[in-house]
Design goal:
This protein is mainly alpha-helical. Helices cover about 65% and strands about 10% of the residues.
Amino acid sequence: MKHDPQEVIAMNEGTNEDKVYKVNHADVREEIRKEVAENLEKFKDPVVLGVLISRLLEERENTNRILKNLIARIEQLEGKQVAKETPMLPKVDEGIVAFLREGPKTAEDVRKQLNYKGKNAASARLNRLHNLGVVVKKHVGKQVYFMLA
């Protein structure tokens, strides 16, 4: 059963004690219609459209920047949560953590400490600890320093 919007408003008028919903008067509708017509006329101007598109692009970039920051913070919090959930590490990793307690170290420092032949093994272990949230990376020039989180 379809009702005319005016009928619905009229039916609710008697039951609405607070008068929260009020009847739309013709002059209000006419004012809105005129405002819409004026805005539609403005949109025919290509300069106005260009400005609107430019502002939309700026807002999109700002929104993307905000989302990127939020995602980075969420990932950081998730990393800390993973670190809290997985405190047990292999003996080699515990040795690296103990070595990092002395201060920031590079993969080369860890390689020398653990007597690895190549830097890749030390770097892989440090990156694994970083992904677990146990250590953090700090880039200084071409050097990457690892320190406890």
